[in-house]
Amino acid sequence: MQAFILVVYCKKSYREAGKIAGLSHQTVRRYCQKVIADGFDIVENPSLSDQQFEEGKSTRCPHTCTTKLDKQLAEYVRNLKTRREVTLDMLGHEFNIVRWTVVTAMKKLKMWKVKPTKKPKLMKEMMAARLKFFLEHKN
Question: What is the pTM of this model?
Answer without folding.
Answer: 0.39
